[in-house]
Specification:
single chain; Rossmann fold; seven-stranded parallel sheet; 7 strands; 46% helix; 14% strand
Length: 258
């Protein structure tokens, strides 16, 4: 077990990739705090981990509100004694061209994706420093932070900001022995990707710009997170790891295959 005796807080962990992080971290020996605003789903994830002999609890948290993020981190420490890992996974996606984005959509997407990452990193780091833990902060970026996406104009911009927050926090926290990294997934089979994956035209485009020719399974992204959180990645900080099926290496589209 690579994360034995570690304590991890994971936001947006009620479903999708966040759920995969929670379940994989628990399987690797970590105590997990499942954080989300989807109470029923989040409680089910925590209960599922506990049913398999793992340690987990659910905490409701709107990551755009500092008081709730602060309370989340305090709960992790009070429940499990310390904090070693925080994954800022909670995110919103806007569908549609950037010219159609409203003020309300812009503000909410940035509040969750950027401010939420900032607050998660900052509040988690405070507890790690206070507890003298050489912890790890894992932010979730995306390939669209680099190449953009006209279907998700606002979301793309937030993920670019996450990349820079990752580097900034890495520099600030290095003297404390706290590592800060990010994962940049390509397309992943989740509810968030249900639209693109069910649209034949968009699915064809996705495959055309992904050399491996398919979206990732959530478990494949969770495996990257386990590595980055483990001591095996002890000299890695300030970097974004792209688990993208080769998309960013591609400067053309793949030929069609049957």
């Amino acid at each position: 077990m690579r994360l034995k005796d570690k304590v991890a807080v994971i936001t947006g962990a009620a479903r999708g990739i966040g759920q995969a992080y929670a379940e994989r971290f628990a399987a690797e020996g970590a105590a997990v705090v499942v954080a989300d605003i989807l109470d029923k789903e989040g409680q089910a994830v925590a209960a599922g981990i506990a049913a398999k002999g793992g340690r987990a609890r659910y905490v409701r948290c709107d990551v755009s509100r500092r008081a709730e993020v602060s309370a989340l981190m305090d709960t992790a420490v009070s429940a499990f004694g310390h904090l070693d890992v925080a994954i800022a996974n909670a995110a919103l996606v806007d569908e549609g061209d950037v010219m159609a984005v409203t003020d309300e959509t812009f503000e909410r997407v940035f509040a969750v994706n950027v401010k939420g990452t900032f607050l998660t990193d900052q509040e988690a780091a405070k507890r790690m420093i206070a507890g003298r833990r050489r912890g790890v902060l894992i932010n979730i970026a995306s390939t669209v932070a680099v190449v953009g996406d006209n279907y998700e104009g606002c979301y793309s911009a937030t993920k670019g900001a996450v990349n820079l927050l990752t580097r900034t926090f890495a520099l600030s926290l290095a003297p404390h022995g706290i590592r800060v990294v990010a994962i940049g997934p390509g397309p992943v089979k989740t509810a968030m990707m249900a639209g693109p994956l069910s649209d034949p035209v968009r699915l064809k485009g996705l495959k055309a710009r992904t050399p491996l020719g398919r979206p990732a399974e959530p478990s494949e992204i969770a495996a990257v997170a386990v590595f980055l959180a483990s001591d095996e990645a002890s000299f890695v900080t300030g970097q974004t790891y792209y688990a993208d099926g080769g998309r960013l290496a591609l400067n053309y589209v793949m030929p069609e295959t049957n």
